[in-house]
Design a protein that fits this description.
heterotrimer; A mainly alpha (about 290); B alpha/beta (about 400); C mainly alpha (about 325); B: about 400 residues; alpha/beta; Rossmann fold; 2 domains; 7-stranded mixed sheet; 6-stranded mixed sheet; C: about 325 residues; two-stranded antiparallel ribbon; two-stranded antiparallel sheet; 4 strands
Chain lengths: ~290, ~400, ~325
């Protein structure tokens, strides 16, 4: 019984990691309809930048903040330079461009920081608390809390603020919305900049647990997308739900069924969701569903 | 219908025949001869990952040759050794391409890449070309393919784990759990340990795997706890193994933890932090275990800034074996003759003990050592076989 | 295009193939020949992806994993003493069947989000290939049990393989052109242009989408089998997302569903990704940047450039021969 509870708790904690990536991915999707396949790489970039700030002597919290802000700036720059020229083209093209950006980012990181694994200092300790026979580390609690806080902030932003309304409108129909005086270019820029900030936050929180390697970016991206699809494309609470659910299911499979094929559950689940209910558990966005 | 006259057909056939003859004439690489003039360089090939996640092996290789040449010489009777390199990227098909690339420059020997799967893919090609392949790979399959042109400078996992497995059982452990990654190294390492344990009468009760890209190991660790193991063998590359051990300790896995040679590495120690203390590992190289070992550890640290480990030392010994083989065979030897010379080598004073080979390419008198980590340092605990 | 009647077009393909075989064998050796061989294999797989994405609009990164299915099927069949040609056929069938799965599951998603299901499939396939050590040898891979020879040419060597691969690329290119001009191809064009109108016009959109994935998958299986024959070896490393992305980029660079563009782009991108700059640290970086720049700067890819060039050439020709009527 203790093992079962531990499995669930550890799963939830691991899921919060995927959820943080999924949140950024979902926000960008919700507001621009673009699937940003570089989200994981941006997160790792944020961690690398933070590490550089730590190395030049900044206190850790400031270094992490600086890293997050830089990631937002980099993402905004990328949007302006690489993605803006592509908005008039079929949607597949910007998606492909994010793939190119992901490849470029990974190789930049390899050139600048090398391919040996590095370590980023953590914000919270990794010595576990033992509560009733179940081990949970402060680090895991921080990640989980951060995911929830970020999701709440985003929800408020997107639902209630003017910028959020502008973002949703631009995603729905850019031409019409511009008639209402919304600067669509600036809106797209804002969406990506915020997505970049989210990636940075995810990176500095997750990397102390999983280690810093250029190739980690792609791994994170894949789990993030699966979580977003399961939870519902375009739903922010769905991103958290999806992440936690996937991680718990994978963990249960690993402990009770088959330790080797357990991660395959992620893919089977994605397949089932896309077959039965494209909008996922909480999604209400119909953009991805064919109308024919 | 297509060709109005058979003349065109014959003409085309003629051109193709000529092309075919020219192509086959240019393509043959059976046996190579070294230079015949006085100072023609001796070509030695290096196939190593120079880009990608394992690119540090490429760096190890370049530095290893520097150190080996400094100690054993960089030319044979006035003929300088010329290194030609190709990138195997730790991917078997890229390794095959890299090998063909290197073979086109007619080397007399090739230093095999650090990733076992790459070497296995290259072996049929280098054997057909009669070029000796000197390797430090840990997969036992490398010497089991029946090739007469492969030489492995350190004990493979089959040998190492045979001794380690029976040692574990002797120490009294009967419920052993294994966690390993799905890379070629991880699969080979864990399956040899599992067979050794089974042969000693205590088959592992859990054998769980994770992918190299996994970010969380709680599922695997908890499956070990569920099975009430009394010892855990955790395998991975330095980053993964470090995280694995750290998470195991934080999830309350309190049984003794064992690891392969990776536990002697710095990156593992940094990643695992405090969790690294007290783990036990099996290896063929620990820095303080002998004067030669200490020497190379100091040299590596002072010249290149990283700590020596079984991989970097193995690569160094690959280079030494090739140099000493060339000395024995002579600067104008063919690759075939060099192959025979390497097979007859017997080198002493090396960090991992005496180096000589059996006829199938495996090392004679393998050195297998058990170590532990205390206070941030790796220390030797027992010698399971071989002489220091 | 009126200059090339169907029979002239066929002759052009045959002549082109023969010419290229000779040129390749005479001018290239060793490592360069290996790149051409690899480019041929990727060209065939990319032509299949062109059917799936270029013609039907389904964005997929699974083409490389489907190549893997084909390659492993071939290896397993050859190990059980099945002949090389039947094994290749089975490879096509296996890959086509798995690919059809994506078509069926993706039936309800918009084409550009098809990438999600293809991603799941690609990763799932690699997971099985890597873990099922009994069947597939795991990460170590498996050597091909028999190396085929055709008329005395050993297909396991770079030059032997080139003799067969280059004509095969031309043959498959020709077939794909025929496919595009056929009823099937026109239906796919309609679906990718405006699905609603296509359905209104009576085209069974679902069925054609699945068929497109089947056909594209068969190409991938064939290419995977060929790659295994060329290397006399198969390992899962060759069929991951890296290669899947490379194939997708080939089709994008080709532009507008063009087959000719796909073949040329395959050569260029294979050379960039695996040939040029392999030892240098910045090689990957240049590859990534090239992708982004090409996508931004060349909206219609090589096909667009080709069209511009042809138009320019025709204008120049007309001016030269003064056939144009003054206004």
């Amino acid at each position: 019984m203790a093992i079962l509870i531990q499995t669930l708790i550890s799963g939830a904690a691991a899921g919060a990691v995927y959820a943080l990536i999924a949140l950024g991915f979902t926000l960008i999707y919700k507001t621009t309809r673009i699937i940003n396949l570089a989200q994981g790489d941006l997160a790792i970039l944020g961690a690398y930048i933070s590490l550089t700030f730590v190395r030049i002597g900044l206190p850790v919290p400031l270094a992490l903040l600086a890293g997050i802000i830089c990631t937002g700036i980099v993402t905004a720059l990328l949007e302006r330079v690489a993605l803006r020229p592509l908005y008039r083209r079929p949607l597949a093209i910007p998606i492909l461009c994010t793939i190119g950006i992901a490849v470029t980012l990974e190789s930049v990181m390899q050139v600048v920081w090398g391919s040996l694994p590095l370590a980023l200092p953590a914000m919270a300790s990794s010595t576990p608390w033992n509560i009733g026979g179940v081990a949970i580390t402060p680090e895991q609690v921080v990640i989980f809390a951060a995911a929830i806080v970020v999701a709440v902030i985003l929800l408020v932003l997107v639902d209630s603020t003017r910028l959020g309304r502008a973002m949703r409108g631009t995603a729905a129909d850019a031409e019409v919305v511009s008639l209402f005086g919304v600067n669509t270019d600036l809106t797209y820029l804002a969406s990506f900049a915020i997505g970049g900030l989210l990636a940075g936050i995810a990176g500095v929180l997750i990397v102390p647990t999983i280690g810093l390697l250029p190739s980690r970016g792609l791994d994170l991206s894949i789990f993030g997308f699966s979580a977003a699809v399961l939870g519902g494309l375009g739903s922010l609470p769905g991103a958290i739900l999806g992440g936690v659910l996937i991680a718990i299911l994978v963990n249960l499979m690993q402990v009770y069924v088959s330790p080797s094929y357990a991660s395959g559950v992620t893919y089977v689940l994605m397949g089932i969701v896309l077959l039965i209910r494209v909008r996922g558990i909480l999604g209400d966005d119909l953009e991805a569903v064919r109308q024919v | 219908m297509l060709f109005e006259s058979s003349g065109i057909k014959r003409g085309l056939a003629g051109m193709m025949a000529v092309a075919g003859i020219v192509a086959t004439a240019c393509g043959s690489t059976s046996g190579n001869t070294g230079g015949s003039a006085d100072t023609t360089p001796i070509t030695v090939g290096i196939v190593m990952p120079y880009t990608g996640d394992e690119s540090y092996y490429g760096k190890f290789a370049d530095n290893a040759w520097e150190m080996a040449m400094a100690k054993y010489g960089s030319s044979i009777n006035g003929h300088p050794i010329q290194l030609v390199k190709a990138d195997s990227k730790c991917s078997p098909t890229d390794a095959v391409t890299a090998t063909r690339d290197v073979l086109a420059r007619k080397p007399v020997a090739i230093m095999a890449p650090a990733c076992s799967a790459d070497t296995l893919a290259m072996l049929p090609i280098t054997t057909a070309a009669k070029v000796p392949l000197v390797s430090e790979n840990l997969a036992e399959a490398v010497t089991q393919q029946g090739s007469a042109y492969v030489w492995v400078v350190n004990p493979n996992d089959g040998v190492t784990n045979k001794f380690f497995g029976s040692w574990l059982v002797q120490q009294g452990y009967s419920h052993i759990g294994i966690i390993h990654d799905t890379t070629s190294y991880g699969q080979g390492n864990s399956s040899t340990l599992a067979s050794a344990l089974t042969a000693a009468g205590k088959a592992p009760v859990v054998n769980a795997s994770y992918t190299f890209s996994a970010t969380d190991y709680s599922g695997q660790i908890l499956s070990l706890k569920k099975a009430n193991v009394d010892a855990a063998y955790l395998e991975g590359y330095d980053l993964q193994a470090g995280n694995l051990v750290k998470q195991a300790k934080s999830l309350g896995l309190s049984v003794p933890i064992f690891l392969p040679t990776i536990a002697a590495d710095d990156t593992f120690a940094q990643t695992a932090g405090d969790a690294a203390d007290g783990v036990t590992f099996v290896t063929s190289f620990i820095p303080g275990m002998s004067p030669a070992a200490t020497q190379i550890a100091n040299d590596t640290k002072s010249k290149y800034g990283y700590s020596a480990n079984m991989d970097s030392v193995g690569i160094y010994e690959q280079a030494v074996a090739i140099i000493q083989g060339l000395k024995a065979a002579g600067p104008t030897a063919t690759s075939d003759q060099l192959n025979t010379a390497i097979g007859k080598l017997s080198i002493s004073g090396l960090p991992m003990g005496q180096l000589s080979f059996k006829s199938d390419g495996e090392i004679n008198n393998p050195l297998v050592v058990v170590g532990t980590r205390k206070n941030g340092q790796a220390q030797q605990v027992a010698v399971l076989t071989g002489t220091l | 295009m009126s200059f090339l009647t169907p029979s002239r077009r066929f002759a052009a393909f045959v002549a082109g193939a023969a010419l290229l075989v000779v040129v390749v064998q005479l001018t290239l050796a060793g490592p360069d020949l290996l790149i051409v061989d690899e480019a041929c294999v990727y060209a065939i797989a990319a032509l299949g992806l062109n059917v799936i994405f270029g013609m039907t609009g389904l964005l997929s990164v699974a083409q490389a994993a489907l190549m893997g299915i084909g390659g492993y099927t071939l290896t397993l069949m050859v190990a059980r003493h099945v002949g090389m040609l039947p094994a290749l056929a089975l490879a096509c069938v296996a890959a086509a069947a798995v690919s059809a799965l994506t078509g069926v599951i993706g039936g309800r998603i918009r084409s550009h989000y098809f990438i999600l299901i293809s991603l799941a499939l690609a990763e799932g396939i690699i997971l099985v290939l890597v873990n099922d050590m009994q069947l597939t040898g795991g990460t170590n891979g498996v050597a091909l049990a028999a190396s085929p020879t055709v008329f005395g040419l050993a297909l396991g060597t770079p030059d032997g393989f080139a003799y067969v691969a280059v004509p095969l690329v031309f043959a498959i290119w020709y077939l794909t052109d025929c496919l595009r001009a056929s009823r099937f191809g026109i239906a796919l064009l309609a679906i990718s242009t405006d699905e609603y109108l296509a359905a209104v016009a009576g085209i069974a959109t679902n069925r054609y989408r699945v068929l497109a994935t089947v056909v594209g998958g068969a190409y991938a299986g064939f290419a995977g089998g060929l790659l295994t024959i060329a290397d006399s070896y198969i390992g899962p490393q060759n069929f991951g997302l890296d290669t899947g992305i490379l194939l997708l980029l080939i089709v994008v660079l080709a532009g507008a569903g063009s087959n000719a563009g796909t073949v040329v782009a395959a050569l260029i991108l294979t050379y960039l990704a695996h040939g040029l700059l392999t030892l240098t640290v910045v090689g990957e970086l240049i590859y990534g940047l090239a992708i982004v720049i090409l996508i931004i700067v060349a909206p219609d890819g090589l096909a667009g450039l080709g069209r511009l060039a042809r138009r320019g050439a025709r204008t120049a020709w007309l001016r030269l021969t003064a056939r144009g009527q003054p206004a």
